[in-house]
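Appendix B, Record 12. Input sequence as logged:
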Amino acid sequence: MDQTNLFLRIDFSQGSRLGPGKIAILEAIAKHGSIASAARELGMGYRKAWLLVESLNSMFVEPVVTTLPGRRDGGSLVTDFGREVIGAFHRMEASSRAAVSDEIASLRRKLK
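Logged structural output:
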């Protein structure tokens, strides 16, 4: 089984970054409806997860996550725009993998 991985990270000219970690937190929030639960699933502290969400929300012209203050169990939602960001990132990953698959296969054949 091929265990070779390709990771995509986009460094925007304004200094913002979008990569697998931020996408993972968005997906976990979409799954659980909570930043705290998403952080637990990913094995990170709540503060780190919150900072990733703040970074994402300040990066784009629309919020990717909204919070529902006052709920006893907390609550956060990935917006429709946030889902667009997730989808676009995964499409870019798939395109990148397809574009370099021959080169990766060639390098794998040359590994010790």
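The helical segments are 20-32, 35-42, 46-59, 80-109.
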